[in-house]
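The following record pairs a protein chain with its ligand, copper (II) ion.
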Amino acid sequence: MKILKFFIPVLLVAGISWLAVDYFKKPKYEWIEICTAEGIKRVKYDDQGNLLAEEWISQIPAHLLLVEKSQSEAQNQVPEIKLIELDHVEVDRCWVRLLPGHLPAAAYFELKNNSGKELVLNAIKTPSYASAVMHENIRKQGMITMERLDKVSIAANGSLSFSLNTYHIMLENKQANLKPGDFISLQFYFQDEGMKTVQCKVNSPNSLSY
Ligand SMILES: [Cu+2]
């Protein structure tokens, strides 16, 4: 009886510690919101890019997709561009979240307008993807949706961050084999002003920052 009184608590403590160690040993993967051609999904990837879990956040109904596609094809003509490299614009910490297969990638960065004049970003191009489109995350009544932007302005001497909760560039139709650690070149076009070429770091599917 005395032995039992001693061993039961010991076993209990040992069991709880074992469970706790096991819990903390397991790597934890964050939910990541991704933008796909059919809507927004929440996904979890491990370090090797294996999909662990996924769920839809908001799906675009099929009939709307058709309309969106034809509209975006019409809009894909880049407005008149000036091929002058601007030195009063900075694009820092540019990174791309690469997703497996044919899923679109997303690019994030910090834009700084060091001029005394408002700048309007109205196109992005890259040799690595056939299509690059600006998106804004919109939260409406607790729901997250995505809206395509044709232009976005950066105030004189102001800055704008394309981050997980604000804007991103959706990159579709990969033109080259990419892997985390690579760099891709992105060209930013500013209305009536010129352009900026930036090297962006390619990150793994589960990355959340630069
Ligand atoms: Cu998007």
